Amino acid sequence: MRINNHGPIGVNEIEIWVTSLSELKSRKMHLLYDDQCQFCCAIARWAKAQNAEIEVWSVRSTESKELLKTHGIHFIDLQTVYFVEGAVHVRSRAAFQMLRHTHRPWRWLALFRLLPLPLTDFVYNLIAKNRYRWN
Q1: Structural domains in the chain (count)
Q2: Could you tell me the residue range of the domain that residue 51 belongs to?
Q3: What is the pLDDT of residues 50-98, one digit of tens each?
Q4: Which of 97, 118, 121, 129 is deepest in the core (most CB within 10 A)?
C-alpha cells in the first residue's frame, strides 16, 4: 500500500496493489506431473524434497489446467511433464529447468540442456513411453 499526497492539502490518495492469483502463481515454480504414474510421483516427491519452493501439482488438476491456460496451453499431454517458472517448459527442457533448482550434484545434470533439443527430447520420450513399466 502506498499513500500519495496529491491535490489540496489534507487530501490523501491511497493506492492498493492487488496481485491476482494467476500473477502470484506465475512467480512460483510449478512441476506438473502425471499423478497416475508411480515413477512420476516419485520424481515429484524427490523434486519437492530437493526444493520446498517447487509446487508439485497433478497435471490433471483444475489448478494445473488453469495455470497452463494462462500461458496459452489448452491441450494437456499426459506424456509430458511441465515446469512453469514464468514461462512453461516441457519435456526435457522442463526436467532440466527443474534440476537447476535442486541440490548438488543433481543440479549439475541441468548442463545436459546444452545438448540439442531433438536429442534430449528423444531420450525424454523413451523414458515417458516406458515409465509405467518402472512402477
Answers
A1: 1
A2: 25-134
A3: 999 999 999 999 999 999 999 999 998 888 999 999 899 999 999 999 9
A4: 97
What is the domain-level CATH number for residue 68? 3.40.30
pLDDT in tens, 111-130: 999 999 999 999 999 999 88
Task: Quote the cell numbers at residue 55.
Answer: 509446487
**Distance (Å, rounded) from C-alpha 65 to C-alpha 68?**
5
Note whether residue 83 is domain-resident.
yes
| pTM, rounded to two decimals | 0.76
Judge whether 9 lies within some domain: no
- Is residue 8, in this structure, part of any structural domain at all? no
